[in-house]
Protein: Large subunit GTPase 1 homolog
Organism: Cryptotermes secundus
Amino acid sequence: MGKKNKSTANLGRSLIKDRFGSAGRTRRNKDPSLLHTADVDDGYEWGRLNLQSVTEESSFQAFLSTAELAGTEFQAEKLNITFVNPMSGVGLLSGEDKEKVKGAQDKNKQLLGIPRRPKWDINTTAEQLQAAERDEFLEWRRRLAKLQEVEGILLTPYEKNLEFWRQLWRVVERSDVVVQIVDARNPLLFRCEDLETYVKEVSPDKLNLILINKADFLTQSQRRAWAEYFSGLNVKAAFFSATLAAETGKSEGDDETDDGVSPHQDVAEYPESEEEGKLEEQSQFTDTDVTESCTEMSADSETVAVTSTGEFTNSDILLTREELVTVFKSFHKGPKVTAGVTTIGMVGYPNVGKSSTINALLTYKKVSVSSTPGKTKHFQTLFLEPNLMLCDCPGLVMPSFMFTKAEMVVNGILPIDQMRDHVPPVTLIASLIPRHVLEHTYGIMLPPPAEGEDPTRPPTAEELLNAYGYNRGFMTQNGQPDNPRAARYILKDFVKGKLLYCHAPSTNDQSQYHTFPERQKQSKAAILPPLAVRLLKSNKLSTEDLDRQFFQKMSVGVHKKGTQSSSDNSDASENTKPWKDHRNKRNKREKLRRVYAYLDQ
C-alpha cells in the first residue's frame, strides 16, 4: 500500500477549521481597531448581507422598516375578520364623504337661487324686455355652472328652458298667494326658499303657503313634528291629501259639483293624453284604510286651522277639500291683484301631485294627470268659486343641492323609465327599507349575508333584483333575472308609497321619527317544508362545509376505478345531468334556475 497523501487527508479538517475556527486558536493581531469587524464573531454573516442601496420606499415599506428598527412586534388577529361585499353601497356616499359634501353645500348656499325677471315699466318695449330676460337668464345659468364645475357640487337637473321660467314669473305676478306643493315624505327637498324670497320681492302684499300633499302617508305625530318645524321658521304650512279627497268625492257622487261650479266651464286647457283617467298618485290603500282616513279627517275638522280672528295657524290637521278651500278664501287679507278675486298660484316640482290637487279641489277632472314628470306645459287659470281662482304653473325642477343622482330618481324628480343606471337607486332603497320589510312586501326570500360579513348589512341591488325578478317571472332569453325591468317596478313602488320611507325634519331624530314594524317571529308550531329547509341550507356555505368538500373530493380521470371506455361515450349524455350539456339553451336555463333555487319557496 502506498502512503496516504497528507494534503488529501487534511483537506476536510482544514475546511472545518477555516469555517468554525479552532478552540486553541490564538489571536495574532492585537490591534484594537479591528474589534467587532474581522476578528470578532458578532452574529452577522458578512458574506451573505444584502448590501442593496435603498433610497425610496413606499408608505407601507417605510412603516415596516421603522417598526423593525424600533423592535415592534405585531400579532395577527385571525378570528376578528370582517368581509366587505364590493357590491354594497354602489353609487352611494359614505358618512365621511357626505359630511364633506354637506359642508360645501352650506358654504355656497347663498349662490343657489332662481332667476329673477328684470324690472320693467310702461315705457319698456317687448323686445327690450325679452332681451333683458335672456341676459338675466344667461347670467343665472353661468353662476350655477360655475358652482358645479369649480366647487364640484351636485345640483338637480334644473329647468334650462327660459319659457318655463317665464310661466313662473307670470304666475307669481298675478297671484295673491303662492302655494308651494311639496311631498310629505320629504318636504325640504321640494321646498324652494328662494322662491318665497322672490314672491316678497315682487310685492310685499303677496303671501307664501306650503301645502304638504300626500300627507296621508304621515302619522299624526309626524304631521305635528312638521307643523312645529315650520312654525319655528315662521312659515305657514297645511296638510292635504289629493288621493283621499278624490276618493271622498267619488263616494259622494261624480255628478254633484260644489259651490255651483260647472264641469263645462270655459278655461285654457292643453290636449289630454292617452293616460287620461289615471290619477297620478295611485292609491295604495284598501277601502278600510280610506274609511279610517276619512273618519280621521272628519274628527280633525272639529278643530279649525283658522282662528276666530281669521288668522291661519299651523296644525297637524289633515284638511279636507272644503277646509282647504276655506283656508284659500280667508288666507289673504290685503289688496288683490284682480279686484274682488283671490288668485292662488299653484307651484311645485313635477310629480308632487299638483295637478291631482287641482282636480280634487274642482271635484272633477279638468287638468290632465300623468306619472311622468313635466306633463303640464303652460299655466292656466281655473275658477274654483266666483271670487276664488286657481292659477296652475307648469312643474319646474328648481336648482337644489343633492348628494347623488339616485336620490333624484327615487324621489320622482327624474323619470324612472329614462334612467340609464338602475343599480344606485335600488341600492339606496335597499339601504332605507329594512330587509324584513322588503321580504314581507314582495313575498320573497333574500339571501342572508355570507359568513364573515356584517349580519346587519342591507341587501345589495343584485340580491334584491334577482329575488324579485325570479319571483315575478321577469327572466331574459338566456334564463337570467331581468334586473332592469325589476328595478323599474321597485322604484315605482317607492315613488307611489308602497315602500314607505318618510324623512324627518332637521330638528328631529330620524330613527325616532320613522319606525318600521318589527320582524314577525316564527311560532314554534310553524314548521318549514323540507324543500324550504334544503334551499335555505344550501345557500349558506360554512367553512366546515368548504373543508369537507375539498378534502373528500374524489379523484377523477384515468386512475378512477370503473371509468367508461371511449366506446361508451355515446351514452354518456344520457347518464349525466341534463344541465351539464351547454349545447341546449333549455339545459342552460335549467342550470341557472338551480343557481337561484334558494329564491323559490
User: Anything to note?
Assistant: The longest strand covers residues 177-183. The chain has a mean pLDDT of 74. The longest helix spans residues 126-149.
